[in-house]
Amino acid sequence: MKITRRTLGLMAAAMMTALPAIAVAEYPQRNITLVVPFPPGGGNDAMARIIGDAMTRQIGATVVVENKAGAGGVVGTQAVQNAKPDGYTLLLGHSGTMGINPHVYPAATYHPTRDFTPVGLISEIPLALVVNKDLPAQDVTGLIALAKEKPGELSYASSGVGTGSHMAAELFAHDAGIEVAHIPYRGSGPAMTDLLGGRIDFLFGVIPSSHAQVAAGKARALAVTGAERSPTMPDVPTMQEAGIDGYEAALIYGLLAPAGTPDDVVAKVNASLNAVLADPAVQEKLAVDGSVPRPGTPAEHRAALDADLEKWGALIRDAKIEIH
């Protein structure tokens, strides 16, 4: 058969058109690194290992969790920001690193949607407003009234300045128009210990551990911070149901890649992530820390990140919160 120049040209064009499809089929060809910007052993690390293990079985490559701690999550986050945008380096990001840190850490000069490629939401973690069992406030309205009777005298604990528990309490104080004293701790464990001991009046804690103390009769839960009631504490109202209009303070978690990561690679990782989140076994493991799965598209993740950055930034500026 005689092959003309025109035939060769058409064959070349067809091959070029097929290249993107070949690239999609070939990803991934090696291990994928999932960076956790915190030390091993915490909630972020546990979530990453649950997701990484499940994605290893689903995506066709080993997902290796790597901890890069420092500066409240800034070090690991920036490591991913500066990584090659090829889909082989991913970040476990959440409200603290992506929505709060850029407003309180001078070193956190990154923007969550300009300097990263959102891949997909993993979950959200609502918190519970828990009070000392001897505090004479039976509901959120009562707590607000008590705080207004004693401006600045009631105290709340957090797991540190700029953490989710701190921001949830600041948002409550802002929306309720009350003045309360902030007592930061080095972690949620010591904060809960002092709540139970009567040394502080209330805190916003993760639902599973808060529920355990409430069930034991050692504390009382007045509300949860999500848009919906928690299946773990179905009798506890949301903050909005308790009278704080528009209040919502769930922490969002998701996977991000460096800016410029190819769309086809992002789509493949997103599809794998959503398949993992649909697995009841994965859902059960995530529920241990109170996570509610939130599968979706990269565009939905992008919108959630932008909204989170704006929301917490406005609160931080109003409350003049700084980390030195």
TrEMBL record:
Keyword S-adenosyl-L-methionine: no
Family the entry assigns: Belongs to the UPF0065 (bug) family.
Entry keyword set: Signal
Entries under Pfam families matching the protein: TctC (PF03401)
Region forming the signal peptide: 1-23
The name this protein goes by in its record: Tripartite tricarboxylate transporter substrate binding protein
The keyword Signal is annotated on this UniProt entry: yes
InterPro entries: BUG, Bug_dom1
